Automatic annotation (TrEMBL):
Pathway: Purine metabolism; purine nucleoside salvage. Phosphate binds at residues 46, 78, 103-105, 135, 223. Gene3D superfamilies: Nucleoside phosphorylase domain (3.40.50.1580). This is Purine nucleoside phosphorylase. Homotrimer. The lineage of its organism: Bacteria, Bacillati, Actinomycetota, Actinomycetes, Micrococcales.
């Protein structure tokens, strides 16, 4: 049995420490890329994939499903490769970014451990910072499709957590004010909002969107919050950025569709990818 298949099985075993699988994944990445450690990780959601080519020079590219604990992506439009990228910063220093492709969503039914595995692997490679991006529905008419929004806070409506047992983690300032301020030095016009994660895979009903708005949400989607919680637990600083790909149900006069999300991402891709690359270089 290969290391990958054995590790995948172990991740499904509740008696196995998921951090052991993350360390095995990090070892695989170090060996496959020739880069012993990474500094910053990126999880690129719908519309954000083009940023990888703009961040720096790609050192190596790995099929994500070959890394212990990862599976093939189940959603069209989500990258299936993980890249190690050499980033030259304005002060002349060099950092290495790990771009994780093939994000696992909770609605895929593969378990919360797999949802959190990407950020835990990033922490095991040495990353102290993670940038989590997504495509989402917007609750404000002023935020048209293609608008990037910094995540200030979140509402977890999935009914679960990425932490296990009596693991108590303070989520105050989960989405780093320091990193958000750096992002605003790149684009002072970036708005902020609260992101609400639903389980999915169905889109939210108009009543659910209204409920989320009454609870304080500005954005709705199906990813990010469980990864952010796991990242904080692993000791990483978190920057979250959403791309409004559509107005949410009940706000948009049009029926929602996944193709609409992909098309909005394709249209906004060059602009938001350049923005994200500049932010990562500045972090």
């Amino acid at each position: 049995m290969s290391t990958t298949s054995r590790s995948v099985g172990d991740l499904d075993d509740p008696t196995t420490d998921p951090f052991d699988v993350a360390r095995a994944a990090a070892d695989h990445i170090a060996e496959a890329t020739g880069v012993p450690g990474h500094d910053v990780a990126l999880v690129l959601g719908s519309g954000w994939g083009g940023a990888a080519e703009l961040i720096g020079d790609v050192v190596a590219e790995i099929p994500t499903h070959e890394i212990p604990g990862f599976a093939r992506p189940a959603v069209a439009g989500h990258a299936a490769t993980t890249r190690s990228i050499r980033v030259e910063r304005p002060d002349g220093s060099v950092r290495h970014a790990l771009v994780i492709g093939g994000r696992t969503h909770l609605y895929e039914g593969k378990g919360v451990r797999r949802v959190a595995h990407g950020v835990r692997t990033a922490a095991a490679t040495g990353c102290e910072t993670v940038v989590l991006t997504n495509g989402c529905g917007g609750l404000h008419i002023a935020w048209r499709p293609g608008q990037p929004v910094l995540i200030r806070d979140h509402i977890n409506l999935t009914g679960t957590s990425s932490l296990e047992g009596a693991t108590f983690v303070d989520l105050t300032d989960l989405y780093s004010p320091r990193l958000r301020e750096i992002a605003r030095t790149v684009d002072p016009e970036l708005p902020e909002g609260v992101y609400a994660q639903f389980h999915g895979p169905h889109y939210e009903t108009p009543a659910e969107v209204k409920m989320a708005g009454l609870m304080g949400a500005d954005l709705v989607g199906m990813s990010t919050t469980l990864e952010a919680i796991a990242a904080r637990h692993a000791g990483m600083e978190v920057l979250g950025v959403s791309l409004v790909t559509n107005l949410a149900a009940g706000i948009s006069p049009q029926p929602l569709s996944h193709e609409e999300v992909l098309e909005a991402g394709r249209t906004a891709g060059p602009r938001i990818s350049e923005l994200l690359a500049r932010i990562v270089t500045a972090l």
